[in-house]
Batch of 2 targets.
Target 1
Amino acid sequence: MTRLPDRGVVDRAAPLKFTFDGRELTGFRGDTLASALLANGVHQVATSIKYARPRGIVAAGVEDPTALVQIEAPFPEPMLSATTVELYDGLVARGLSGQGRLATEPDPARYDAEHIHCDVLVVGAGPAGRAAAAEASGRVLLVDDQPEPSGEIPGGVRFLSRTTAFGVYDDGFVLALERRGENAAPERISRRRVWRIRAKRIVLATGAHERPVVFPDNDRPGIMLAGAARTYLNRYGVLAGQRAVVFTTNDSAYAVAFDLADAGARIAVIADARDTVSARLREDAAARGIEIRTGHGIVGTAGGDRVTSAVVAELGATQGDRFACDLLLVSGGWNPAVHLFSQARGTLRYAPELGAYVPDGDLPTVRVVGSAAGEGLPEVKVLWQVPAAESEVDTRFVDLQRDATVSDVLRATGAGLRSLEHVKRYTTIGTAHDQGKTSGLLAAGITAEALGRDLAEQRPTTFRPPYTSVPFAALAGRNRGDLHDPVRVTALHPWHVAHGAEFENVGQWKRPWYYPRPGEDLETAVLRECRAARTGVALMDGSTLGKIDVQGPDAAAFLDLLYTNLMSSLKVGRIRYGVMCGVDGMVIDDGTVIRVAEDRFLVTTTTGNAAMVLEWMEEWLQTEWPHLRVFATSVTEHWATIPLVGPRSRAVLAKVAPGLDVSNDAFGFMTWQDAEVAGIDARVCRISFSGELAYEINVPSWHGITLWEALLAAGAEDGITPYGTETMHVLRAEKGYPIIGQETDATVTPQDLGMSWAVSKKKPDFLGKRSFTRAENLRPDRKQLVGLLPQDPAVLLPEGSQLIETDHVPEPPVRMLGHVTSSYRSAALGRTFALALVRSGRERVGQTLYVPVGAAVVPVTVTESVLFDKEGTRRDG
Amino acid sequence: MQLIPCPWCGPREETEFHYGGQAHVAYPQDPAALSDEDWAKFVFFRANPSGPLPERWTHSAGCRRWFNAVRDTRTHDLLAVYRLDEPRPVIP
Ligand SMILES: [Zn+2]
């Protein structure tokens, strides 16, 4: 039995059952999974990822590189370190070879986040951290990753246990992960919590990690950092072995050897790499009957699932004396845990007496204290590896988790890599779960030796967050599923849901995509909806259209600068289509502009660009044209917008708006009127995105459903049909109307779209104007918007397909002439068609081009972009 | 996460802000009078120093106002924040 009755602080009154690799075991409250395994005599925890060698427990904290486990119950969680998993009743775990398994079922636990401000944040509740917290004034927050502090927390200090500060960012922003209730009822308590801390000042008391020394076969279970064995003994009451060999470069391992000896273990020998050892340590060792061999190291070990012997040899020799043991304790010195300091952009300095990097002075707001600053750490004989001959298979492991050896490092330097960053990437050392906490400095030291360089001249690799691994679930917190991103729905949404609409996500909006009838798929539903719009009457929910109210004495002048065409000449009561470009002349949005009054316009934008266009307006108003007296206000949600479309739309509107003269003479195309529609004050616009006679009826959004249902009732005898975005897209594509963002990609000018008519020649300037005369924009071989008719009218081209000139795909490089931007089946045309951006497209009208689709090459005829009702006779009914 | 001191709202987290490129690159008085080269310089060319750079920022999730900031591109430190109608401060 390795659990001693008189040692440790675990709660022996609280035994816990757990399962590891199928074995039922017990531990105590206060154990980690690692300490409980050792208490049960389990040393081999995992196998290594590349060579499948048995691997055990090296450390007692976050620096452990080998004891990787998968938790299976209560909820699957991969890639955890057994040294950081608190034991609880019912825990089921198994060892991993470096790869875990994500849960396939949703996690029932909650994860949350809390924001907190403090004057001083102290990281680490050891003696140095507690002293710093006691001295600090104001709001003091102390965090520590252990369940219990090792001493009394000063009064007035807020203390968070089980909380690991894992990232330090700008301006005192620190992220910490609190492990709250690993197995608690998820409805009562969140499982993990991310603390988002903003601190005026930070004190890092993060301690130090012991580092190993590399020697052949240094990876067997039972080979452990010396300090870890002391922690297992004094904190968990676990004697990690009965007969130990100790290998050290410094004094600290002696205290471990003496503690273990006093607890009943046999210390076979202490191999000390140094030439001399102090008289006091010699006396203390002699008093316990412990042999010391100075100038010695380990040159080999034996054992399978646990170490059984170690060979102690004089440094430089490859042969020595073999000592039987079941525990091999190693101390290569101590690395101050400077990770968070380095993240805060603190500079590090090599301290040769420690063989480690220490903070090179404090930062203005970040101070490092205790052993994290190198204080109180033992001087060492710097030794990265024991000189030893190796046969062809190298077992001198530098990174135990990545199975990377000294030979791998030498291969990297031999290949000419000199910087640690490159060696790290070549060998993968330091990239595993432990992020190089035990291996990083060894790799640096061995690299420096190989290059004949001094570590003091070698820059350490930069430490980056996170200090320890953080589950994505914790980072996501509550922002999952419906809470991941806001969902925006229109006033008509409940009706769409009730009537079986399929939805399409457009930005954050849920838009009806199509309204399938029983037995219909997308294609048949859309053909039916299109036919209704072209032959009878149909309506859609256009409420997501971006709407911006632009007012002020200079509103007209402002819009003249923003749009490519003239807006100031627009009369009140009229509507004009407009295109907006960036200063580079490329189209960024389009929409209609309604003149509401002399000093007031209502501008519409594409659904996805509403926020962008408002910000674009604000930017120019504030930064370049602050003299213009204009306000721009988003009013998108204020209105429910319903396009009523089709040859019968006039008759339907007349029924619900008896006071409105809907004749073409009284209510012409591109005009608007305020009228009562279905008893509601409405603004009716005669605009058409389908090419059909159409009215866009706008009412305050809370009247949306009333209006919608009134229109449905009025159109019932005409077979009024609701249609979705897919039908809208087909109708507009038949008319060659581009959608900004689908036909365009920020490299397309209005001229490329065939919209020179929308670009003013009269205005002295507007955004983009000067760019239109740049040589690049005048090239005749620019990509231009055209239509495509596949020669087989049943073939539907995939959107995004490339166009080529030949009827077969030639040897690469293949000259591509452009790509398909939109492609649909058309009820009106009785065939498929597409829109495409094609080099010199307008010159190619009538030509045959080819579209590779899978293994086939589809011949297509280039046409003008307008494929239906070229004369535009239908819009007036 | 950086704190950006909005001249109107005070220090707020950087996620509330949008970057607007180099500051003090005024829209030309008469673009038509510029050569293609000079216009291209205005549209496409911006300074990229290793050190202080005056930039435009907007507090898009706050007061929605634009302002200028001098930021050290090596450290991200904001050396000065000032209103659009204020001259660029002299950074020692
Ligand atoms: Zn602000």
Target 2
Amino acid sequence: MSAVLPEVEVPESGDVLAVTEDVWMALLGDDAMLVPRAVPPGTPFDATAWSAATTISGGWQGVVTVELDEALARRLTTRMLALPADEEASDSDVADAVGELVNMVGGNVKSLMPGPSVLSLPAVAAGRAAFASDSALACRLDLVWQDAPVRVSVHVPQEGPR
Amino acid sequence: MIIDDSRAMRSILRRIVTDLDFETSEAEHGQAALDQMRAGVVPDVCLVDWNMPVMDGYTFITEVRANPEWRDVTLMMVTTESEQRQIVRALAAGAHEYVIKPFTPDAIVDKLSLLGLVPA
């Protein structure tokens, strides 16, 4: 984790990891654990990806983003929708499932921070996440689940303290 | 009735309550749920997300509670909104129970049991 703006309260990376693990276990079970992955700072997410973001605004402001390997996003969707093994999830289904994933991670990150705040509806993209030029990285987790990379990021506004 | 804008989440909840022998209907937001209820589909219990487009879960609860004909409908929030202030608001508006996502199937069963909707 890199706290870019010391005057802005940012979530602890260990807390964000705990939230992510809880969501992962609920959605994908405990047959495999999320494990850390060493990635140099500033490295873009390196997988063919789906990404989703949710914005927290109010007493605390930030953006929580989840980026997923394509195969993992489809596995997550298959699991959430309980699709038969031979049925492929549609892109619409994947967008729905990945959006719900970031909704859960973001909602629980919100609960870690000062409030009251409001959580936006998720925005989902097939591809890497886009970040606002006026935001700064506050927390980044690079993880692996069953050989598939996952990244969870929290960005905060670069403006001064609230 | 399962009210959530995520098809995936509705699917998860549907499997849990179907295993408990509930018959289900679904709505993608509060307004769609109200439309169904005004058309005569009045459920025993609603599992209600908070953050949804068109009409959020909190507004849905206040609308249901404003209609005396629906006083027997049990309302359970199932949401990522875990701030204590939000939980208090929902309960004050008329929600009977509150489950925070992510949840286990047992958490849903336990809450429905507390509400007397499934055997303990």
